[in-house]
Amino acid sequence: MMNMRSMVTVSKMDHNSIPEVSKLFTEFDSTEIPNLIGLCRRQLFVHDDVQIHLYDFAEQADQSALAKVKGDPRMARLSMDLKPFVAPYDPETWNSPADSAAFCFYDWQDEPIENAGRTDTTVTVTRMDQASIPAVTSIFRESDSTESPRSMGTRRRQLFAYRDLCIHIQDHDGSDGADIAQKAASDIWFGKVVRDLPELADQKPTTDGHASRFYGWVAP
């Protein structure tokens, strides 16, 4: 897996808007703009009414090109076209797209291996008090120092925080999320992670925290 710099934005979106949102990004990503800004991969996930937008950039993305395309009318048109379907997570405090960006507080990546093959991505979302970040970081750092992530096929783990949410992103060997979950259920170290994590949610969620990927684009 090549080194990439990731960015995550969080918004509100109705599941019923998936076809329209997918179509808009399919059209936009067919232009030269993603390649100009060094975008390697874009993935969109939704969990309940929360949309997770994961951007993976080349580690040495051209910042001057990024500044240049910000004024491209196609960027403004995409934002306008998305408005009927995607809304700020917290409209009362939202002032600009920068207010939708989550911050990464933990990033672990396995040693590179030859002929690693393709990777898939699994995203889970849960509630988290940001005061828990040091404890959560410590627990995952301890687990990722063992063979646990490798035994589950995890190649990279990133934890992002946004308002009251924790977004857990795993890039793993080309197996589906259900396979990862099954391996995790029998892994001793991952079981310890689950036991040691502080209480992240005020109440049990009505559904599990796995977000569904509904759109994916990879640079040619």
Q: What is the ordering of alpha helices and beta strands? A: EHHEEHHEEEHHEEHHE
Ends distance = 15 Å
In angstroms, what is the radius of gyration? 18 Å
Level-2 CATH architecture of the largest domain: 2-Layer Sandwich
Number of helices: 8
Q: Given the helix and strand composition, which structural class is it?
A: alpha+beta
**Uncertain runs:** 184-189, 201-207
Main sheet properties? 5 strands, antiparallel
CATH class of the largest domain: Alpha Beta
What do these coordinates show?
The protein is α+β, with helices and mostly antiparallel strands and 220 residues long. It has helices at residues 18-29, 33-36, 63-69, 73-82, 133-144, 148-151, 177-186, 188-196, and strands spanning 4-13, 39-47, 50-58, 86-88, 103-109, 119-127, 154-162, 165-173, 212-218. It has two domains: 4-100 and 213-218, Dimeric alpha+beta barrel (Alpha-Beta Plaits, 2-Layer Sandwich), CATH 3.30.70.1090; 103-196, Alpha-Beta Plaits, CATH 3.30.70.1090. A hairpin with a 2-residue loop joins β2 (39-47) and β3. The chain is globular and about 50 Å long.
List keywords for this structure.
Alpha-Beta Plaits; 33% strand; 220 residues; globular; 2 domains
Write the layout of secondary structure elements.
Elements: E1 4-13, H1 18-29, H2 33-36, E2 39-47, E3 50-58, H3 63-69, H4 73-82, E4 86-88, E5 103-109, E6 119-127, H5 133-144, H6 148-151, E7 154-162, E8 165-173, H7 177-186, H8 188-196, E9 212-218
Antiparallel strand pairs: 1-3, 1-4, 2-3, 2-9, 5-7, 6-8, 7-8
Helix pairs in contact: 1-4
Protein name: Tetracenomycin polyketide synthesis protein TcmI
GO biological process, one term: polyketide biosynthetic process
